[in-house]
Amino acid sequence: MQLREWEDLPVEMRTEKVRRYYRILKRKRGSLIYKRTFDIVASSAMAILLLPVFAVISVLIVLDSAGGVFYRQVRVTQYGKRFRIVKFRTMTAGADRAGPQVTVGHDRRVTRVGGFLRRYRLDELPQLFNILTGDMTFVGTRPEVPKYVEKYTEEMRATLLLPAGVTSRASIYYKDEADLLEECEDPERVYVERILPGKMKYNLESLRRFGLMEDLKVMALTVREVFGKEG
């Protein structure tokens, strides 16, 4: 994993607020290489070992509700590149056209099997293949849909210096995001105006603390959180 030269960044990212974070990452070129190496080795090994789990989940999804096994959606990753994130389908077919793009607590669009997969984050296992292609990394800012990225401030765009992540401190601390949005009349507005800025504070702090050991800590915290222990 390498950083582009400053002059090669998208124009909208070449601001002084982004430059502060760019300089931090530029000094950690070794950590960037280690991060990508870890991503390739770990995601390859996990994809092979978890093939039986993939098969079982696929069967359960098919038996539970009509629709495909996988869900694909356009998200934004490093340097503003758009890609298709892959997840196990946890909602009824066409759910993204029948409601907001953020999920609220007790969302009726979530299937029975989907609720279980979301609880233990098993729906995100297919993102191992997004990691292998380089569109994602294990630890980094969660990828947003384009319309939310358009709401980013200049400083928030610094999170696009690195690939989007499967997990992060922000996703851990905001694990109850759906419950927070459940009672809102306009969940998408609340997400953009209140939750997104809060998550971004953690994401930007993670850029300042960037390093492989920090990534391993976040991965350990994620595992602990998934299995219900207080962080």
The largest sheet has its strands arranged as: 1-2
Percent helix: 40-55%
Q: Which blocks of ≥5 consecutive residues have pLDDT under 50?
A: none
- How many runs of DSSP E, i.e. beta strands? 4
Global outline: globular
What is the average per-residue confidence, as pLDDT, rounded to a whole number? 91
How many separate helices? Answer: 10
What radius of gyration results from the CA coordinates?
18 Å
H/E element order? HHHEEHHEHEHHHH
CA distance, first residue to last residue: 30 Å
Structure description:
The structure is a single chain. By secondary structure, the chain is mainly α. The protein contains ten helices and four strands. It has helices at residues 16-26, 29-49, 51-64, 112-119, 127-132, 146-149, 169-173, 177-182, 187-208, 212-226, and strands at 70-76, 82-88, 136-139, 164-167. Helix 6 (146-149) links the parallel strand 3 (136-139) and strand 4. The radius of gyration is 18 Å and the shape is globular. It starts with 15 loop residues before the first helix and ends in a 5-residue tail after the last helix.
